[in-house]
Design goal:
Number of strands of chain A: 9
Family (chains A, B): Belongs to the pseudomonas-type ThrB family.
Strand order of the largest sheet of chain A: 1-2-3-5-4
Strand content of chain A: 15-25%
Number of helices of chain A: 10
Organism (chains A, B): Bosea rubneri
Domain Aminoglycoside phosphotransferase (chains A, B): 27-257
Oligomer: homodimer
Number of domains of chain A: 2
Largest interface: A-B, 35 and 35 residues
Catalytic activity (chains A, B): L-homoserine + ATP = O-phospho-L-homoserine + ADP + H(+)
Shape of chain A: globular
Distance between the termini of chain A: 40 Å
Low-confidence stretches of chain A: none
Pathway (chains A, B): Amino-acid biosynthesis; L-threonine biosynthesis; L-threonine from L-aspartate: step 4/5
């Protein structure tokens, strides 16, 4: 959560004018999104979100992200809808960065999800997978198995300064996945980062999904594994089976899992826990001088990984069969 | 700019419900205000700002700040208007802190004020002084002359790590003010922190004043001196006389200065430059571990102070007489 970029006077008003949404009345830097600078705009026509894309988002991927949000919104999914200028461009440049304006979504993200929230997000995730089926673009998941070894090497022996023995355990885990990663599962558009801070609720009802900047083409069940990791553990790293049941039942109420997905779920949960352990570890070891952002604890995902390593059947996550 | 406090689930919705402004639909942490946590709220009735008061604001002063904003708004000044619960309370508690909700104001703060902006803010400052005349409460300016020596002692010899010789110059300046500080000037409610980030504009017209948490009872001309410091210098610490002329003319179009105020202006400008030099210096030397906030450069105010030390007549600030 951070505003990284300060936008010079007048430049913002001129940028907004291009989108034909009236005159700019207010712009507040908001603490939302980890990788980008976001501003909540008020114009004479309404409220909008302005995003300035910082380095971490590759400019070449923006047409995919923008196109995906447009596609999903057209399919009825509640997500930010990109605006286009009179020339038809969604992405422009502001303060030296690619920038876009999307619609403002109501809703509050929950810090401590309840069972009801887990059911809602399971259902929402399946709706997202269904809505993305006929989207024409593809994007490889750069943070799947082939991306893990380079991350582990980037952290290197320093990982052991965070927790003794961590480096060795990480490489062993990577090796196991490189040999046995599930193949040929039903695939399509996945969100790949549907943590509680990216899901909005109004009175326990899901009201929108945001932050599609990790979205890619990968196995649907991998997305589900990411959600099991980020929604169904308690603060002490214990797994809440009732939440798992709700999330999986919510998902299957829209899109029932195939047998191969059920069989793969423990491996996918391990892999996705490893993925967040690795990226958090690299961030943890590379906090820039004078950073505004507190890095997230990598060991939260080491503890979750340890849980998954002892799981052998998807029923242990609450899948009803 | 920072959001310091994270508010637990449901607590915020319950807090908002007490104010009778409908159901909470959205709450975004915003980068506004230096000392407090601010959230932009959307409810079924409109947009509001929720402020959580952090340590730096003394809870005992809140009735003064809240009462002042209500008073000024009733007198027609555009400033945040505090809301009250059914019980008549403006300040409640949220996440262990005093908290209040005020109306949302449109407008953009300018990073590089133009001459036109300076004229507007001069006029706005005088309107604030006039609107505060019949406000019944008082609050001493704890950051005036008696507060400077303790700040300088807090910085101590460490000041010289920022710039060699700074400590000695500061104590000499304090001594000069302790002997000769202007007395008996027209006084009343002053904002005491009317920097560009606390003034909103829509298309070059002043649309509102915010952040009254340094407001106190002191000489009106001292407030004007603070504005000359914060609005009329260029980034290289050169004084822009045209901006000074506009600011002073704007002020006098509402409230002409008395002869004693004119005579005191150079001393007041020196004093107010010293006040911001001192608080910034203490902040600079005391950045907490893991801070989210980048401290402001104290030497900006050392350079401004040096300018004022060579001024002997208010006409050098652009006062037309």
């Amino acid at each position: 959560m951070a505003v990284y970029t300060e936008v010079p006077d007048n430049e913002m008003a001129a940028f907004v004018a291009g989108y034909g949404i009236g005159d700019l009345l207010s712009a507040k830097g908001i603490a939302e999104g980890v990788s980008n600078s976001n501003f909540l705009l008020h114009t004479t026509q309404g409220f909008y979100i302005l995003t300035l894309y910082e380095e971490r988002v590759c400019a070449d991927d923006l047409p995919f992200f923008i196109g995906l949000m447009e596609h999903l919104a057209q399919r009825g999914l509640i997500c930010p809808q990109p605006l286009r200028t009179g020339d038809g461009a969604a992405v422009g440049r502001l303060a030296g960065r690619p920038a876009a304006i999307v619609t403002f979504l109501d809703g509050l993200s929950v810090r401590r999800p309840t069972v009801a929230h887990c059911g809602e997000v399971g259902r929402g995730l399946a709706l997202l997978h269904e809505a993305g089926r006929d989207f024409g673009m593809q994007r490889a998941n750069v943070l799947s198995v082939p991306g893990w070894r380079p991350l582990a090497e980037q952290a290197g022996a320093e990982a052991d300064t965070v927790l003794p023995g961590l480096s060795k355990r990480i490489f062993a885990e990577i090796e196991a996945h490189e040999r046995n990663w599930p193949q040929g599962l039903p695939s399509g558009i996945i969100h790949a980062d549907l943590f509680p801070n990216n899901v909005f609720f109004i009175k326990d009802q899901l009201s929108g999904l945001i932050d599609f900047y990790f979205a890619c083409t990968d196995a649907f069940a991998y997305d589900l594994a990411i959600c099991l990791n980020s929604w169904c553990f308690e603060a002490d790293a214990s797994f809440n089976l009732t939440k798992g049941q709700a999330l999986l039942a919510g998902y299957e109420s829209v899109r029932p899992l195939e047998a191969a997905e059920v069989a793969a779920l423990p491996a996918l949960c391990r892999g996705s826990a490893l993925r967040f352990l690795l990226t958090r570890l690299v961030d943890w070891l590379n906090v820039p001088e004078g950073a505004f952002v507190k890095p997230l604890d990598p060991l939260e995902y080491d503890r979750k990984l340890a849980f998954h390593q002892r799981v052998s059947d998807a029923r242990e996550y609450g899948l009803r069969r």
